[in-house]
C-alpha cells in the first residue's frame, strides 16, 4: 500500500475586508492541525486568498488586480511555505494569478514537503458570463476576469503517486477527469467556490450538494482515482456558498466529508494502491476504450 494522509482544508467565508495576512493565518492553523494528524498533504480551495471577487462587476483594472497575486510565494503567502517546510507537509493552493506578461488565470499549484512548487494548473472551464448582467442577485464573471487555462490537465509524481489538479467548474465536465485518467492519475486535488443559488436556473439550487457529490464521485470511479474536493464555504458578502468538502475513493465512495460551513479539516488515509483494481479491470482503458468512436467529443 501507498498511503497518503490527506487533509482537506475547507475554508469558511472570506469577506472583502479580510486581509491576505488574516486568511494566511487561518490557513496556517489548518496546516498545523493537519500536521497533528500526520497529514502528508493539505488541500486548500479555489481562490483561497481572497473573497470570491467574480461575484462583482468591476471596471477599474487596479481594483480588479488587487485580488490577484503577482508572485508566488509573495510576502503575504510566504508564511504558508515556511510553515509547510517546518512541518514537513505538502499542500495545494488556489489563487488568482497575474503573470509578468499581464495575463490573468484562475490558478492552482502543488507544493511538495520541501516547499517547492512541483505543479501548476490554470482553470479551463470558466463558468458564468462575461458581460454585466444586473438582473442577477450576484454576478459570476470568471469569463471576464480570467483567461482560459493554457496548461491542459497534467499529472505530477509527488507524495508517492501520480497527482493531478482541476478547479471548481472543471469537476462538472467528464473530460477534465478523463484527460488525467489517460495519464494514469491516482489522486485529483480540486478546490471550489460554489454559490448555492444559480441565477439562470434557480430550480437547480435544491440539488447543489447532490450535484457536487455526483460529479466528483463519478469522476473518481470512472477514472480509478482518488478525488479530494475542497470548498470555500459559507456566506461571503451576502452570497451563500456550499461546503461539503469531500475525500472520495476510487470506488466512488465518500470516505470523509466536512460537516460545517466554516474552516474545517477533514482527514483521511488514502491508499493509492486502491486505484489498481479499477485501472486493471473495469477501466482498463487500453483494453476497453474505443477512441475511434469518440471523435464527436473533440469536434468544435
Ligand atoms: N463555481 C460554480 C461551480 O461550477 C456553478 C459555478 C455554480 C456552476 C452552480 C453551475 C452551478 O461549482 C465556480 N467557481 O466554478
Automatic annotation (TrEMBL):
Positions of transmembrane segments: none
Entry GO MF terms: hydrolase activity, acting on carbon-nitrogen (but not peptide) bonds, in linear amides
Keyword Plastid tagged: no
UniProt name for this protein: Putative amidohydrolase
Taxonomic lineage from the root: Bacteria, Pseudomonadati, Pseudomonadota, Alphaproteobacteria, Hyphomicrobiales
All copies of domain CN hydrolase, residue ranges: 4-274
UniProt entry keywords in alphabetical sequence: Hydrolase
Amino acid at each position: 500500500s501507498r498511503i497518503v494522509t490527506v487533509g482537506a482544508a475547507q475554508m469558511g467565508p472570506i469577506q472583502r475586508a479580510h486581509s491576505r495576512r488574516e486568511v494566511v493565518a487561518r490557513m496556517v492553523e489548518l496546516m498545523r492541525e493537519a500536521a497533528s494528524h500526520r497529514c502528508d498533504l493539505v488541500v486548500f480551495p479555489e481562490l483561497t486568498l481572497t473573497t470570491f471577487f467574480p461575484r462583482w462587476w468591476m471596471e477599474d483594472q487596479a481594483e480588479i488586480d488587487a485580488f490577484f497575486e503577482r508572485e508566488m510565494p509573495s510576502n503575504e503567502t510566504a508564511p504558508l511555505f515556511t510553515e509547510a517546510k517546518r512541518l514537513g507537509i505538502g499542500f495545494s493552493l488556489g489563487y488568482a494569478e497575474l503573470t509578468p506578461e499581464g495575463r490573468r488565470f484562475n490558478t492552482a499549484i502543488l507544493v511538495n514537503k520541501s516547499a517547492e512548487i512541483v505543479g501548476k494548473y490554470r482553470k479551463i472551464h470558466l463558468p458564468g458570463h462575461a458581460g454585466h448582467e444586473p438582473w442577477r442577485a450576484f454576478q459570476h464573471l470568471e469569463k471576464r476576469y480570467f483567461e482560459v487555462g493554457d496548461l491542459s490537465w497534467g499529472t505530477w509524481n509527488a507524495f508517492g503517486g501520480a497527482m493531478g489538479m482541476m478547479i471548481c467548474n472543471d469537476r462538472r465536465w467528464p473530460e477534465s477527469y478523463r484527460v488525467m485518467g489517460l495519464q494514469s492519475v491516482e489522486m485529483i486535488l480540486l478546490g471550489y467556490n460554489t454559490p448555492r443559488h444559480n441565477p439562470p436556473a434557480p430550480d437547480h439550487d435544491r440539488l447543489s450538494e447532490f450535484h457536487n457529490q455526483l460529479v466528483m464521485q463519478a469522476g473518481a470511479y470512472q477514472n480509478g482515482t482518488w478525488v479530494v474536493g475542497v470548498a470555500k464555504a459559507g456566506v461571503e458578502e451576502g452570497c451563500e456558498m456550499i461546503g461539503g468538502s469531500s475525500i472520495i475513493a476510487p470506488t466512488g465512495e465518500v470516505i470523509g466529508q466536512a460537516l460545517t460551513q466554516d474552516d474545517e479539516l477533514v482527514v483521511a488515509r488514502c491508499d493509492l494502491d486502491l486505484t489498481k483494481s479499477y485501472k486493471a479491470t473495469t477501466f482498463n482503458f487500453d483494453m476497453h476504450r474505443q477512441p475511434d468512436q469518440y471523435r464527436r467529443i473533440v469536434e468544435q
